[in-house]
Specification:
The chain has 25 helices and 17 strands. The chain is an alpha+beta fold. Among the domains are: 201 residues, Aldehyde Ferredoxin Oxidoreductase,  A, domain 1 (4-Layer Sandwich), CATH 3.60.9; 148 residues, Orthogonal Bundle (Aldehyde Ferredoxin Oxidoreductase Protein, subunit A, domain 2). The strands form 4 sheets. Strands 2-1-6-3-4-5 form a 6-stranded mixed beta sheet. Strand 16 and strand 17 form a beta hairpin. Helix 18 packs across helix 25 and helix 21 crosses helix 25. The radius of gyration is 23 Å and the shape is globular.
């Protein structure tokens, strides 16, 4: 890497003693590039073996890569921590201004440890770090209000990122997220709860660095090449026009849209909640992450009249994309857009992960319907498919946790089902609630053994959809090999850190040219080896902290509901998982 690149600086913050220091770690960034690669190494160094996720010594690690701040769509930040939701690896990615702000502040990574005696938020402005008293912000109902107050107090509008938690993080809900720039999130696996356990309400980062390049002409040429590929791409146009919500109709057509807790693989109200319907009737504006020309962030304008004042209206701006509409729409059997948006807003205000919230509500609705939980458990709330007024209230109680039932829901669907029954239809994989794809066996392998138990790990849903038109169906071993190849490459993209939406643009040859601009001389073979090493390190951390592939539980519901490829067979999943794990270890 280039000698004058501030990427190699790691900022350490100790909340217990209110002190900070900077370490030069060229070794880390020259070996692992940045992002995921650097973060897993720092997590291995800084996280004590077997520690409770809410222990003050559980580190929060934020890392960026050499392309952040220089190239289009290299706009994300990687967060790593020990997850309170699964008990092992926590990894979440967020866009907005987070990646560029951290890079411009002059760091490649930030490590936060310890616990404050009082609620605080941290402001990092270049080389200066401030510990601000956040007692007045702690306990505020709305995360939006918290963000507005910090925006008014901190300098460098337009250059900074503001990450903050809501009440869910304060109350240690294990799937609480961290909100960045209001409409982006570190959503999955409970980073917000780790913030809350440290009494850390928010983190502000800003800076005004100049970033070096090895050759200015080469930089301009490569930049223009990537920019043109992005704006001319039909895939990127889809993301701009409709966002990921464009997936609703295609997935429904192939019977891959989980509906009513996956009782059905298609939703009769799909057209009413499609990307096209939202764009025509509710789209208020589009936003983009820093250094991204696409603008895939879609914001709905929800206009509601005041009850007692004629011709006066309140307009709420609410972010939406595929996963929230799957989780809080089809999964809950609802197609009324204003009602869905109000539930999304409640989830955002409180700072929850939207996918986990929707899957938990779907399980709770079915359990209520079956009689395994009662109105006594739910505080008098009737959980019924599509009853959004009751869902909004249930979400509030999931955060406030007034009784044992809601305390169980605050720990996720797997834990709740272990207490109240219904494990066969509790849609959790490796401890994490399922994303919105019922495409076939490959997607469930992603959920089961992917590093984050996410569809984003190895894109199993994409492999399943290719099989729809393939004459030859892959064996379990071939499926595992394909998924592993994809997941290893994604370790490179998330080490750079590049948005996965741009994976069709940032192929190996393009990545090598970008890395040459920032001082790295690497080959395809080097990248392949690095991707495999990073994935292996992540898997080793998971095993170290108690993850056991042999103990994975597969809910029977996925075998009962036909997928787009027909019936999913348990023996196929078991063989694929076994081969996948064996190959990671090589």
């Amino acid at each position: 890497m280039l000698k004058n690149d501030p990427l190699s600086r790691v900022l350490f913050i100790d909340l217990s003693e209110k002190r900070f220091w900077i370490e030069e770690r060229i070794d880390l960034f020259e070996k692992y590039l940045g992002g995921t690669g650097v973060a897993i190494q720092l997590l291995d160094e800084e996280c004590p073996r077997g520690i409770d996720p809410f222990d003050p010594e559980n580190p929060i690690i934020l890392a960026v890569g050499p392309l952040n701040g220089l190239f289009p769509l290299a706009s994300k930040t990687v967060a790593m921590f020990k997850s309170p939701h699964t008990g092992n690896l926590g990894e979440s990615h967020s866009g907005g201004r987070s990646g560029v702000a951290l890079r411009m502040a002059g760091y490649g990574a930030i490590v936060i440890k310890g616990k404050s005696e009082i609620p605080v938020y941290i402001a990092v402005h270049g080389d200066k770090v401030y510990f601000r008293d956040a007692r007045a912000l702690w306990g505020m109902y709305s995360s939006f209000t918290v963000g507005r107050i910090i925006r008014e107090r901190e300098p460098r509008t337009g250059l900074r990122t503001i990450m903050r938690i809501g009440r869910a993080g304060e109350r240690l809900v294990t799937y609480a997220g961290v909100i960045t720039e209001t409409y982006r999130h570190f959503g999955r696996l409970g980073l917000g709860a780790v913030f809350g356990s440290k009494k850390l309400k928010a983190l502000v980062i800003s800076g005004k660095r100049s970033l070096p390049t090895s050759n200015s002409k080469l930089y301009r040429d490569v930049y223009d090449e990537i920019y043109k590929a992005a704006v001319d791409s039909p895939v990127m146009k889809k993301y701009h026009d409709f966002g990921t919500l464009e997936n609703i109709i295609p997935l429904n057509m192939i019977k891959a849209l989980p509906t009513r807790n996956l009782r059905q693989p298609e939703f009769e109200g799909a057209s009413q909640i499609s990307g096209e319907t939202f764009a025509q009737n509710y789209l208020g504006r589009r936003l983009a992450c820093s250094h991204c020309p696409i603008g895939c962030v879609h914001i709905a304008a929800l206009r509601e009249p005041y009850e007692d004042i004629p011709y006066f209206y309140k307009t709420s701006m609410i972010s939406y994309d595929y996963e929230p509409i799957y989780a809080l729409g089809a999964m809950l059997g609802g197609s009324d857009i204003p009602s869905i948006l109000k539930l999304i807003e409640q989830v955002e205000v409180l700072g929850l992960d939207v996918i986990s919230t929707g899957v938990i509500l779907a399980w709770a609705t079915e359990a209520f319907e079956r009689g395994s939980i009662s109105e006594k458990d739910t505080y008098g709330i009737k959980l019924e498919w599509g009853n959004y007024l009751n869902y909004v209230e249930a979400v509030r109680l999931m955060v406030e946790q007034p009784n044992e039932y809601y305390k169980a829901l605050a720990r996720g669907v797997q834990f709740a089902a272990s207490k109240y029954g219904g494990q066969d239809f509790a849609l959790s994989f490796g401890g994490n609630e399922m994303p919105g794809y019922h495409t076939g066996p490959a997607t469930y392998i992603s959920y089961l053994v992917g590093a984050r138990h996410s569809h984003l790990d190895s894109a199993g849903y994409g492999l399943d959809q290719k099989m729809l038109t393939s004459q030859k169906k892959p064996t379990p071993e071939e499926t595992a090999e394909s998924l592993l190849l994809e997941e290893r490459w994604r370790q490179i993209l998330s080490s750079l850190v590049v948005c996965f939406f741009a994976r069709g643009i940032y192929k190996a040859d393009e990545v090598i040219k970008c890395l040459e601009v920032v001082g790295f001389d690497l080959t395809k073979e080097n990248l392949t080896q690095l991707g495999a090493e990073v994935l292996k390190k992540k898997h080793e951390f998971k095993l170290r902290e108690g993850f056991s592939p042999e103990d994975l539980k597969i809910p029977k519901r996925i075998f009962e509901t036909p997928s787009s490829l027909g019936e999913i067979r348990e023996d196929f999943l078991q063989r694929t998982v076994k081969h996948f794990i064996a190959k990671i270890k090589e």
